Amino acid sequence: MNRTRIVVLFALALLAAGLLSGCTHRQGPVELELWIADFSSDGKTRELLDKELIPAFEAAHPGVKVNTQYIPWAHLDEKLTISFAGGVAPDVFQVGAEYVGGLAYRGMAEPLDDRIAKWGAKDDFFPASWSTCVYRGRVYGLPYLSAPRVLLYRKDLLKQAGFDHPPETWEELAEAAQAMTVRRGPVFELAGMNLPVSWQVFVEFLWENGGRIFNEEGTRSLLDSPEAVEALQFYCDLYHKYQVCPTSGMPVAGGGVPVFASRRAAMEIMNQFGIYNVRKYAPDLLPEVGIAPTPKRKRRVVSVYTDWLAMSPQSKHKDLAWDLMTFLMEPKNLAAYNATMFFIPPRRSAVAAAGFMKENPELQEFVRLMDQYGQSLPAIPEWFEIRTGLQSAVSAAIYGTKTPEQALRDYSRELDALLAERVKR
Amino acid sequence: MTARATGAAKREARTAWLFLTPGLALFFLFVLIPVLAALYLSFCRYDIIHRPVWIGLDNYARLGRDVSNHGVFYLSLRNTAQYAIGTIPVGMALALGLALLVNAGLRGVTLYRTTYYLPVVTSLVAVSMVWMWLYDPTYGLLNYGLELFSRALTVVARHRVVIPPQTWLADPGEAMPAIIAMSIWRGLGYNMVIYLAGLQGIPDHLYEAATIDGASRWQQFWAITWPLLKPTTAFILVISVIGASQVFAQVYVMTNGGPNNATTTIVHQIFQNAFSFLKMGYASAMAFVLFALIFLLSLITLRLTRGGEVEYV
User: Fold this and answer.
1) What is the DSSP annotation of A137-204?
2) Between B33-41 and B280-305, two packed helices, what is the crossing angle to 10 degrees?
3) What does the pLDDT look like over A125-154, one tens digit per residue?
4) Chain B residue closest in CA terms to A259
5) How far apart (Å, rounded) are the C-alpha atoms in residues B256 and B87?
6) Domain co-membership, A168 together with A277
């Protein structure tokens, strides 16, 4: 009996100690939490932040300690949601090109308009990159890296096929792709155009055709418009009518060489990693790689994907968090960060300051096209659900389970219902 | 009953509760309460960040509409059924066959047993990645095999035979069979070991008696092995039905439900709605539909396999 009592007392004491230690407040430096989702696999990004940038920031802000966490994209959504629900959100965190609507709508990102107005650096950023952080006229973050998608083409193959300029219109695109495609029976040896089955490609065609996914207010689908149907029809035609690529895409080497760099495609729509891959896997091919704006229909569009830094409305040190954000945005810091991953710095003065932009003249062309024709995804709270639905509709049309018109009409109805739910509230 | 005895019984009960408490506390905290909370949430709109809002049966009505419109949830039900039908019968037959072989007293039985059991204890995510490499359209072993095969055919047939390389996971028609094949391979060892245990519970003298009576191996299998394995078969069937209804990891890793929703499954839909779309309420409703389905299927399976138990004394 006595022994039981001792055990119980001991357990209670342990419990009490645990509870108490949870209650004590540590006195110490002010801590800022920073979450980074884009970091290079070779450790260069972490080295830059952990050994250079963050120590420099801490040195300039005595008594401030920054905890940097590197969160892989696969876990980011989950961790963000849970940390916000639990009231322990990071002060500053990185998100992607598709986040602003959802974050702003759920109150997970601090509006920064006043701070930005005082800061005065807004016009130094590329407009398309900047618009990634804007929802309903308010700005919720600062662009951290950009990736514009342009047309990459093989100059030599195009010339052999008898063309003296890269395709500028859809018609020319189809014609050139068809002329360059090489097939042996059902097997594609060279795809005229490397085309994944992806909502991203459809959205590009849609924009080029003057269409939109939904209206300005984000309350009604515009996917049943003739522009949308035409865009999806053209996308399907590339596979079935012009037969420039298999519907399953050109086989991608597992961990090996990407299609374009392995000379198995004559053209593709790709961001600057297309150049990176050619440099890495087929450097001798580089002189033969041309960079052009994606072909137009009614208008010319270069779609731009930008990742950005947001501030948590839960942060207890918003001024410091803002200091950290603007510190990371300083041209040479921004350039150094982007250099670790071969992204385009979304800020003009950072592009000018970046050594790697000078070493890779091709990247200047990406910058020019992004500046001239850049367009980012529209902001809407339901984006991730829309993206999934869009992907289903696009693949249904391409794999032939529905006609483009049917696929878009069906999904358009679904999208209207989805948007109506928010409007109803 | 004396007072003394009651006291002892009481003390015993107290001790029992003391030992049970940690387990029960964990069960309540991490199983029962979350399940009840999920049930409540299935009647709500809930995005984790904001408070849940009661919307009655809306989520369930939406699932109903989805099924009648042949929407994505309907596809996930269809795909899950396809997966179950594809994996269970073949998987069980192969497992039984292997168990019989391993039980036949071959040399190096331990080696075989370990080899077949290895995939079971390997992380499903790791296994999925390895199979993605096998299925890789350009460098995958499978397409390499196809190429070798067509070359061999060319030699034999004396004219050029081309079997085009397949895209496997990128093809809407091939993706689900590809996942099924991998899953059968992966689950084989587990079922085999259970069957093996069942086989080893069958007394040898039955076979001896049958041999003396002149029964062939085939007859012995149908008259002794199969009936006596019935409880084992029932167990594996129920476990497999439950497991197949909950298939997720390989889908998530290998195809993420694509292409063209050809491989999305119920649990994949639950995951996507809960954690990608933050529709916890809708996802919870799906989870309870799945619960009802599994419950029903298990009942049916148990009912079908019950009765007719054979006992030889």
Assistant:
1) TEE-EEEEEEEE-EEEEEHHHHHHTT-SS---BHHHHHHHHHHH-EEETTEEEEBSSB----HHHHHH
2) 120
3) 999 999 999 999 999 999 999 999 999 999
4) B138
5) 19
6) yes
For residue A154, list its beta bridge partners: A289
> Are residues A167 and A272 both part of a single domain?
yes
Co-location of A158 and A260 in the same domain: yes
Closest among A98, A104, A86 to B276, alpha carbons compared:
A98
Closest by alpha carbon to B273, among B291, B261, B285, B260? B285
Shared-domain flag, residues A371 and A390: no
In CATH, what number does B66-305 get?
1.10.3720.10
- pLDDT number for residue A254: 47
ipTM above 0.90, yes or no: no
Structure tokens belonging to residue A395: 């693949």
CA B113 distance to own-chain centroid: 20
Contact between A395 and B258 using a beta-carbon 8 Å cutoff: yes
Nearest neighbour of B164 by CB, restricted to A84, A186, A256: A186
Query: How far, rounded to the nearest angstrom, does the alpha carbon of residue B232 sit from its chain's CA centroid?
Result: 16
Q: What is the mean pLDDT of chain A?
A: 91
| C-alpha torsion sign, points B30, B32, B33, B34 | positive
Domain limits at A186?
150-302+382-424
| Residue A343 domain-assigned (yes or no) | yes
Residue B183: strand pairing partners? none
Q: Where are the alpha helices (DSSP H) in A218-262?
A: 226-240
A21 inside domain: no
Smallest CA–CA separation between B187 and chain A, in Å?
Answer: 25
β-strand partners of A344: A146
Rg (C-alpha) for chain B, rounded Å, is 25
What residues of chain B lie within 8 A of the CB of A84, using their CB?
48-49
Interatomic CA distance for residues B41 and B24, integer angstroms: 24
Total tally of structural domains belonging to chain A: 2
Mean per-residue pLDDT, A377-393: 94
Residues in chain B with CB shorter than 8 Å from the CB of A254 are 132-133, 136, 138-140
pTM: 0.83
Whether residue B134 contacts residue A256, with contact meaning beta carbons closer than 8 Å, is answered with no
pLDDT at position A5 is 57
Q: Which residues of B touch A (CB under 8 A)?
A: 47-50, 71-72, 132-133, 136-140, 162, 164-165, 167, 170-172, 258-261, 272, 275-279
Among chain A residues, the shortest Cα distance to B141 is held by A254
pLDDT at B271: 94
Is A136 in the same domain as A160?
Answer: no
Sign of CA dihedral A274, A279, A281, A283: positive
| Residues composing chain B | 313
Q: What distance in Å separates residue A65's CA from the closest CA in chain B? A: 28
Q: What angle do CA A320, A322, A328 make, to 5 degrees?
A: 105
Q: Where are the domains of chain B?
A: 66-305
The answer to whether residue A25 is domain-embedded is no
Neighbours of A6 (CB within 10 A): 10
Q: A13 versus B117: which is more confidently predicted?
A: B117
Mean pLDDT of B135-142: 82
Given an 8 Å threshold on Cβ–Cβ distance, is A384 in contact with B277?
A: yes
Q: Provide the token pair at B19.
A: 């030992």
pLDDT at B109 > cutoff 90: no
Contact predicate B178/B251, CB 8 Å: no
